[in-house]
Design brief:
With 322 residues, the chain is α/β, with parallel strands linked by helices. It has a single domain, classed as 3-Layer(aba) Sandwich (Rossmann fold). The chain contains 11 helices and 10 strands. The strands form 2 sheets. Strands 3-4-6-5-7-8-9-10 form an 8-stranded mixed beta sheet, sandwiched between helices. α4 crosses α5.
């Protein structure tokens, strides 16, 4: 399967086949017995084979470009000779920050036009790549994906703190990145104000079957996959989910199931009418970003001052008079 374009961003139609990674390999997850450990090791080893990774990942290698205005590049060091490229679109050191994990066919620089949209909403927006994507080092592997995301989050959070950024932090993931966001959320809940999921999934096995993966011969269970549904039960901070009403890759029932399993009392699922897996921003437009800002404000208790309320009222009156 080949990646599909959406706007200036490239989205993958094979985003989540790589869900065969076991959470038992990841920080914060415990193996119950030696038999499970052996099964997990065998599965990860199998899925790291080239014949599988060529189907699971769609990395694009590009030279580092010049960051847009009010954006800065931050490299995350996973190993002495292995760095991951990240880009942070900044608006204010007191503003809330989203740390974002993208889809499988995307790279950091694909967000050079989207990052400023978050800035316009008063949100700092940090985008992280994966191994072998963009100008990042290494080769993408199933067995390292989520552990890498934990390290990436920790180092980005550390950078924000050292640079004086004091706003609340939210983790966000789209499609494949939803597994990363949920993994980070479970392991770093106390450091987060909330979680945002776009085009996420609850169960891996039905999705992999849809994409043509014969999981029966591997004899694995849902608990040996990303296990998003099982993990999100542990996250109790506010959660906001966005999903395309016409998504055929990850059907609406997956989003509804993920929402129902979420352990948070404050949780919301917004369907975007007319949007498929790759067109939420194209269909939602400015409202997409405003809705995310509204969730953040509700979560952190931010209330616009009288000047902002007056401005919003005038804009509403102007639109009504058209």
């Amino acid at each position: 399967m080949q990646p599909e374009p959406r706007h200036s961003v490239v989205w993958s139609s094979a985003i989540l086949v790589c869900a065969l990674i076991s959470c038992s390999l990841l920080p914060g997850c415990q193996q119950e017995n030696n038999n499970l450990e052996n099964t997990v090791s065998d599965t990860a080893s199998l899925m790291d084979a080239p014949e599988f990774t060529q189907l699971l990942f769609f990395p694009r290698t590009v030279a580092r470009n010049t960051p847009p205005e009010q954006a800065v590049d931050v490299d995350v060091t996973l190993e002495p000779e292995l760095k991951i490229g990240c880009r942070i679109f900044t608006v204010s050191k007191s503003a809330p920050t989203i740390i974002f994990f993208h889809g499988n066919g995307e790279i950091v620089s694909d967000y050079d036009e989207i990052g400023p949209m978050y800035q316009q909403q008063g949100i700092n927006f940090a985008v992280a790549d994966y191994r072998g994507y963009g100008w990042s080092d290494g080769v993408p592997l199933v067995s390292t994906l989520l552990s890498d995301c934990n390290q990436t989050f920790e180092q980005l959070r550390s950078w924000l703190s050292s640079e004086g950024y004091s706003g609340e932090i939210f983790v966000m993931g789209r499609s494949l990145g939803s597994a990363c966001a949920i993994e980070v959320g479970v392991n770093h809940s106390e450091e987060l104000a909330g979680m945002i999921i776009e085009s996420g999934f609850a169960h891996t096995l039905p999705l992999a079957q849809t994409l043509g993966m014969d999981l029966a011969r591997l004899d694995i269970s849902e608990e040996q996959t990303f296990n998003n549904g099982g993990k999100i039960e542990q996250f109790e901070k506010p959660i906001f989910m966005l999903h395309g009403q016409l998504d055929q890759l990850i059907p609406v029932w997956q989003a509804e199931k993920l929402h129902s399993l979420a352990g948070a009392k404050a949780k919301e699922l917004q369907m975007v009418p007319g949007a498929d897996h790759n067109s939420l921003i194209a269909i939602g437009g400015l409202l997409y970003f405003q809705t995310i800002r509204k969730f953040i404000d509700k979560t952190i208790g931010a209330v616009p001052d009288w000047r902002e309320r007056r401005k919003q009222y005038r804009e509403q009156q102007n639109r009504a008079g058209r």
